[in-house]
Amino acid sequence: MYYILVVDDEPSVQRELRSLLENAGYRADIVEDFTCIPEYVQKVRPDLILLDVALPGADGITLCSKIRMMSDVPIIFITSQSSSSAELECMMTGGDDFIEKPYRPAVLLAHIAAVLRRVSGRSQNKVLVFHGIVLDLLDGTIQYEKKKVELSKNELHILSYFFTHKGEIVSREDLINALWDNESFVDDNTLSVNIRRIRRKLEDIGIKDLIQTKRGMGYRLKMREREDEAEGSL
Amino acid sequence: MYYILVVDDEPSVQRELRSLLENAGYRADIVEDFTCIPEYVQKVRPDLILLDVALPGADGITLCSKIRMMSDVPIIFITSQSSSSAELECMMTGGDDFIEKPYRPAVLLAHIAAVLRRVSGRSQNKVLVFHGIVLDLLDGTIQYEKKKVELSKNELHILSYFFTHKGEIVSREDLINALWDNESFVDDNTLSVNIRRIRRKLEDIGIKDLIQTKRGMGYRLKMREREDEAEGSL
DNA sequence: TGGATTTGTCAAAAGTTTTTCGAAACTTGT
DNA sequence: ACAAGTTTCGAAAAACTTTTGACAAATCCA
């Protein structure tokens, strides 16, 4: 799970970014004490920094160059006043990307994912997120609030099917077709057992009742009341 | 000297970009035959691609995804009509950056430099590091805390594949393709044996459980869990 | 050429995951 | 409350994948 540091002074932006990032499966942290950010960065070692260009007291560009003296962490600048000379300065100071407000949340996430992809040595990030539950397709794991379990091939396959059909009722038949592509005549019960094993693993990490059964129809990922449209990262 | 491929159909833009890039110390090359760009990229191996989103015949986004199927080269999109959904699509398809026309030349150069700075760390690096384990590609050795072993060709190849796909599940098939690029029909078990030999050597220098097997899916470099309380040493 | 190293193959063993089975638990309609 | 149909559950068998050791083939290097 990637750890992103947000450096911005406006409370509304802070909240907005935090929820956006966390819903996209990142761990987000807000810094407010701008004076000792470079030291802080060195201490907590984030995977990426979102840095507001205009900060009260210190400006983002000097901050960036100070951070650069001690760390190579990727930095994405965020700015409200779009000026190409500001952009130039940001990029020359060691910034990795530059995004203007207002931005579409999904676009910001896409840029973050692109930078992280380059830096991490991982290829494309393939993560599906649902209510803070992070299903990592490359990794074959599912994570919820710091707890993580390994998934087997079937389990991963089933869960990814659910995560790409959030909230829909998925019929047993659909699942069976998705898993056992050709007709290999699996007992209908086989699916039940696979579901049960998934549910057990989910409980191990504190998720219960995620997969609901709709008797006679199939299964469904539980929709929670708090329904914010979070765009997943790539 | 970095080698940049420009994919754009307008002669004026071509000239402009060529002179801009060459004056900045890059080697620039213009492609016009859009149909076989992926193959061309694979052949000439540029360090970066500037890709116009709107091309006659083929669009930049499909082109990008085709290139991505065979190469990890950084791609910067250039567009004349600024649309956030186009930007989103570009970034999700594997693009590294997105720049709108009209741009200030210096800004474009700054973005190019930023992307190259990130990538150069990877392609030019002759050593790959992971959790204090140092894989020396030139030397053909792997080292961990003063202890070092020599690796054979296969072993080096496999390990470097893992080290460039940290934490991902790498399928046996991928590994086999990476090692025996032409179809020489190696026994599937051959890979297992090579893995075992690597594991044995790793154990000799005190590394155990680095290569995990995900049954039915492949292998994976063990990712360290991020510790929550960052114990910084200032 | 000859010896050492690396690489590929085989078949048996070890280990996991997946499937199957029957019984229990649950829903729904009458 | 009962019957009929679904779904869950635990345990054991089955199926499958990977590991292992031994050996042969291929390659490398003096």
Question: Care to describe what's here?
Answer:
Chain A is α/β, with parallel strands linked by helices. Chain A has two domains: 3-120, 3-Layer(aba) Sandwich (Rossmann fold); 127-221, Arc Repressor Mutant, subunit A. The first copy, chain A, is 40% helix and 21% strand. Chain A has eight helices and twelve strands. Chain A has helices at 11-23, 37-44, 60-70, 84-92, 105-120, 153-163, 172-179, 188-204; strands at residues 3-7, 27-31, 48-52, 75-79, 97-100, 127-130, 133-136, 141-144, 147-150, 169-170, 211-214, 218-221. A five-stranded parallel sheet of chain A has the order 2-1-3-4-5, with helices on both faces. In chain A, a hairpin with a 2-residue loop joins strand 8 (141-144) and strand 9 (147-150). The longest helix of chain A is centred in the last third of the chain and has 17 residues, at 188-204. Chain A starts with a strand and ends in a 13-residue tail after the last strand. The A-B interface holds A 1, 3, 39, 42-45, 74, 84, 87-88, 91-92, 95-98, 103-104, 106-107, 110-111, 113-115, 118-124, 138-140, 146, 148, 150, 152-153, 156, 234 and B 72, 74, 84, 87-88, 91-92, 94-98, 103-104, 106-107, 110-111, 113-115, 118-119, 122, 163-169, 214-217, 220, 223, 225-226, 228, 230, 232, 234. Chain B binds a DNA duplex (30 and 30 nucleotides) through residues 152-155, 186-190, 192-197, 213, 215-216.
Salient structural properties:
homodimer, 234 residues, alpha/beta, Rossmann fold, Arc Repressor Mutant, subunit A, 2 domains, 4-stranded antiparallel sheet, 8 helices, elongated, DNA-binding
